[in-house]
Every structure is written in C-alpha cells, then in structure tokens.
Amino acid sequence: MNRFQAMAKIMAMLSEEENLKQGSREYKIARKLVSRKIDRLGPETALLQVVDRRHQLMEQIKILMSLEDSGIKHPHLDF
User: Fold this and answer.
1) Which end of the chain has less neighbouring CB within 10 Å, N or C?
2) What value, to the nearest 5°, has the Cα angle with vertex 52 and ends 23 and 55?
3) With a threshold of 0.90, does the pTM exceed it?
C-alpha cells in the first residue's frame, strides 16, 4: 500500500465512522494529522494505528479546533 492509498482508506473510514464531512475544518485538520502520521510511521502502520486509535485522533482534532478558536495556532498545523 502506498501513501495515497493509506490516506484514502483512513479518510474514508473517518468520514464514515466519525461523521467527518469533506471540506470541513475537522476534515482538513484530520488530513493534516493523518498525513504527518503516514510520513512518520509509513502507510501500513499509520492505517493500523488510526483504526485502533481513531477516537483519540478525533479528541486531538477537537482540541486543535478549540485552540484555533481561541486564537492559538498549533505550530505544526498551518491552515
């Protein structure tokens, strides 16, 4: 599996199971986090980790959205 296939599978799963809407702020943050995870861990490991820990990923997205709403930008996410 390559990077693009892993991204497609992960985002399809998050869209279906976590109700992420394409184009939303949550979706964009998720893509950025998943992309960094794939870069760090490789496609297969990133896919397995997101499947196992998707609820943690969604919590992280909510925290990053709250920070952004407060005017605080996460230094590794440039939107």
Assistant:
1) C
2) 50
3) no
DSSP string, 6-23: HHHHHHHHHHHHS-PPTT
List pLDDT tens digits, range 23-57: 999 999 999 999 999 999 999 999 999 999 999 99
CB-based contact 10:34 (threshold 8 Å): yes
| Domain coordinates in residue numbering, the chain | 3-68
Element (H, E) at 26: helix 25-41
57-77 b/e (C-beta count within 10 Å ≥ 16 → b): bbeebeebeeeeeeeeeeeee
CA distance 64 to 70: 10
